[in-house]
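User: Predict the full complex structure for these chains.
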Amino acid sequence: MSEQSLLCVGGVTKCYGDRIGCRDVSFELWPGEVLAVVGESGSGKTTLLNCISTRMMPTTGTVEYRMRDGSMRNLFEMGEAERRFLMRTDWGFVHQDPADGLRMTVSAGANVGERLMAVGDRHYGRIRQTATDWLGRVEIDEDRIDDQPRAFSGGMRQRLQIARNLVTGPRLVFMDEPTGGLDVSVQARLLDLVRGLVNDLGLAAIVVTHDLAVARLLSHHMMVMKDGQVIEHGLTDRVLDDPHEPYTQLLVSSILQV
Amino acid sequence: MKHQQDLATYNFAYLDEQTKRMIRRAILKAIAIPGYQVPFASREMPMPYGWGTGGVQVTASVLGPDDTLKVIDQGADDTTNAVSIRAFFQKVANVAVTTQTGKATIIQTRHRIPEEPLSENQVLVYQVPIPEPLRFLEPRETETRKMHALEEYGLMHVKLYEDIARNGHIATTYAYPVKVMGRYVMDPSPTPKFDNPKMHQCAALQLFGAGREKRIYAIPPYTQVVSLDFEDHPFEVQAFDEPCALCAASGVYLDEVVLDDRGGRMFVCSDTDFCEKRRESGHVGAMSGQSGETVQ
Amino acid sequence: MPTPLVVSEVAKSFTMHLRDGIRLPVVSNVTFALSAGECAVLGGPSGIGKSSILKMLYGNYSVDAGQVLVTHDGRTVDLASADPREVLTIRRDVIGYVSQFLRTVPRVAAVDVVAEPLLSQGIEQSEARRRAEKLLDQLNLPEKLWSLPPATFSGGEQQRVNIARGFITSHPVLLLDEPTASLDAANRAVVVELIRSKKATGTALLGIFHDSDVRDEVADRIIDVSTFRATLDAA
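Assistant: Here is the predicted structure of the three-chain assembly.
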């Protein structure tokens, strides 16, 4: 593990008028680490994710990120051009609904290639080769490269969305309920794929999920959120096997045993 | 004169002076930022959207009593749209009109650039249906504006990528995106990509007006205009197998004319003025002298 | 050479919020040390907190009070108060753990499950696989199973994968939670042999063995957990 943290979140609070989206959330994320954020719907998970990923402006708080040159930068003091460039090169964002993260009327190959073209790659053959490689890595048949994601199953769409995000070799990926709408066997495949990619590429990730099994399989540490606040944060297996807060105990005891 | 009597009920060139002032300011801004789409308060014109209301407003704002106007539609001076717009300006501005490219000071065009090179004292006014080149891939106006502002043009290449993936080559043949002065990506209106090279370092001022979309943009004279492409799929213009059937011109843009219902066809210059001039000076094509009906 | 593991006055209780917040004390004042090359066994009747102690030493359970000291990167670290990141590196480099049950991961082959701890230490995949196969072979897992995910294996087969995963590394401290529970006599003997060779290389082992034969063969001493029994007012 590297000796410097990748992301440093300090006192992030987001208010919607009088309502609290999330309150005073602080944590650090290190390169290669996966953090799971769990909690029921409405607990502020997605608000937090949107604030950290700069898709939303927090009311107060700071989010600092270690740039590739090693400097630590406050994301909210960065210019929009630089922030957007960061988002499409060094970051990935995997939406729960792949339709939000994909261009549904553009072929799979172009979906994967878009980020390459956005950073100035102007060689069609090379872009297509890279897209082919990535489709293979996310287990989509090469001969589907010219099909639009509209013709893909839910699981394939989600895998395509992951490839589209990882093609520029990001160091940090945000995932919002990545297995949300998928049936169980498709979920298992996707989780294993994500787990493998995260390990192989040394990605850091923040995964928002309400599924504790997802958290256990993917994450190193986890935060439990309730009413906009982090009520428990620690090593994933410790939080799940030895939960302290009443709500966490309820959450863990509510898992259906198969 | 009948025209002058009618004129009394309108301001010169139909629009009131305040409106023309507003449009001229938009034009000046557009010239100052080549390729950038300047919003303007487009007026209702006495013709439907899609008939060139943007181009007509631009023309009305730059037109003076001493100007000579030419209007073309798909290269031709004698099609409905060209004839009506020409008649409109004769009626509301009483300006001289011409079909000859060289004699015009202002040329309003729908979908073509004349074959004859333009000069410094000419203005080319394009009628534009959809000014936003990113529109078909990104429907949100807020987002496309941001993309222009931050020069995020990867999406434009996604469109070209799709072309190659589907057809093996870049199959976009009109409204082919260009980058102006190395900065703004611009839709050259639905002109054939054949005309794109003519925009580059053109001596004439080029103005683009989109009435329904309320945008004006411009290419000042002698400006770099580059068609987007890939390193391994460079930009190419259309080539035609045969010269013009009437004037034998090659290296010009040709229209296909269907002659009968048995597959008979001919290819003729789309620029009617150019074709006529050549024929007058003695150029003879393979089918000249025959009228369409008699060709078997 | 420093003592590989020192446990000092460790206490643990559970608060059951779903049962009106009752507090269940488990152990208190747990104090012992492990020396290199010895195998200590936690003894006492079931339900007395043996597994809980192992889980605290692995960082899986939190510790209410006391210290769990290990040597990591040449310095003494208190596992009880270490942050998650440090606990993970200690697990990678210092403390190994063979749990009672294998937690299977979908689609990962048995041989890769076993090889994974070596990969995380930066060992080449081919070398890691080779060592994993050797160990699976030693534990008599049929070769045709190596490339299959263990989810569908029998209890004994899964347990052997689990043991191989725990024994493949050379962690200075190895915790064993009933590793032989579902094994037949032949495989129990293999495990005994593995434990002996770990001891010979200086690993400190701490185990729970309900099988008295195995316990007698490997144990250097018994730590009687009933002396750490917590009372409601303790800790």
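The first strand of chain B starts at residue 38 and ends at 39.
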